[in-house]
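The instructor's notes for this session suggest beginning with a concrete chain rather than abstract definitions. Hand out the sequence below and ask the class to guess, before any prediction is shown, which regions might be ordered.
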Amino acid sequence: MPIKTSTMKTEATTESPTRNNEAFLKRHKSDSGPYLTRASSVHLLASSILIAQCFCLAYAINAVLFEDANFNDILPYLGLFLGCVILRAGLVFLADQWAFYGAGLIVNKLRHDLFVNLFKRGPVKNEREQPGDIAHLWIEGAESLRTYYARYIPARMTMAFLPIAILLLVFPVDWISGIVFLVTAPLIPFFMIMIGKGTEALNRRQWKRLSYMSGYFLDRIQGLTTLKLFNAGRREVDIIAKISDDYRLETMRVLRVACLSSLMLEFLATISIAIIAVLIGFRLLWGNIDFLPAFFILLLAPEFYMPLRRMGGFYHARMDAVAASERLAVLLQGAEDASAQHHSAPLPDQFKITFEDVSFSYDGVTPVLDRVSFTLNAGEHMAIIGPSGAGKSTILSLLLGFIEPNAGRILINDIPLPDIDQRVWRTALSWVPQKPHIFNQTLLENLTLAKPDARMDEVLQLAESLHVTDIVRDLPQGYDSMLGEDGARLSGGQIQRIALLRALLRPSALMLMDEPTASLDHKTETAIRSAMDTLSKGRSVLTIAHRLHTVRAMDKIILLKAGRIVTIDTPDSVLKHPELHDTALEVPLC
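After discussion, reveal the predicted structure:
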């Protein structure tokens, strides 16, 4: 298992603007259906009931203290007060249920879209991504959006409504208290934003560090055997300890700023309420205000600042969501266009493939393929040979839909390949990669991976032809034996034979094979190659080959060099081509 040597970057070299990340979050809000809108509306209704609740309590106490009211006189107001408390609690509970359910719909939709888009991107585009980073984004990244949608969005609506509603009620009753509310209220969001600006960069950097840690740890666990073989365990322990300590320090920096933010918000809210209380107290003493409006305003004062304080707490949930959305937006890029396919009808049993001046570059600068043109007719067997880096595997990746040409086009019976639904196209293919994957399932389940409903007699016939029966005899439970993840109990040659069998078992019109017999000894390869030539009759076959006897039976051979086609001809002609024996080609045709 190779060990990747990633380098930690504490600062992002390029960061997407926060505005774009928030646009991403806003765009996916509609995935919650009506639930987030309902939750916000119910929270606003609960806020209105809160005002009525405060008035009922203030009126009842005023009646007892200054109007000599008895219990029966204030009973209706106490009943209204209790009813408001119960109704408001029920509404808040219902709003929270709707908010979390709607947020759950968004999170599930994002996880589904992430899985689908990673699958559509294919292994070529995904090979630069760290599996640990993807897993962290799938679990923690998507989960951080739940709090944003379930808490921050409704809190933002309440913050926009409740303080304004209280101001409209207070100004006609006591304009002095209204002025204090109006002057002090903007201070809380102002300091929240000022402190949040500094926290945002720290939070985004912390998120990147955590993603890096996830990828690094998983990579080292997967390469544990290699680390032990090279006696590098102690070195990696020291590196992991350093990374963990850096993450701890960065976490404390974020928490320090977050605690400072909360302290500042609480301090401003407390001071503002104290100012209101002091002014009302002196005016009550001087007789400039009655007890009922004074007490009503005092009850409303904490509720006036509460939405602003709550926003301060949920503002950090927003920053987490913004940081996570930066990576999600990159990995979900193009998911909205996934359904923009035109040709969804099943393809014919046989078809012609045409490359027309196809060019491709992985980095946009160095061409891997340069104006490649050829035709693979229906039922034709064709091999591609050439030195390492000539572009052979890139041709297969283009046909599999993992990448798209930078120039030129690929036609399937005169239909451009991008216009064919990927699911329809891939049902017509069988693929044997250089390194086939074996799942931690039984041998039979791995053999019938592409055709789960295959009959046992079909499997047995192919197993005999491809020498898979030798594998069955070596396994304790035969076809029901568990193979282990990535074929832990098998050799490279055995894995290759299993991959060949499941590719031939699939009823496909086109077989794509990347060095399918590279891990086999000469005797086994000769036998299997002979069987494959018989079993693949009637199918189109495109093979990348490195050995002479694997291409002699082909109808045509393409000789590639530096991304260009040197020649396309019959095996006898190509194998005598002077450039084939140029030592710079390094093609082990032996």
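Then share the key points. The chain has 17 helices and ten strands. The chain has two domains: 22-331, 353-585.
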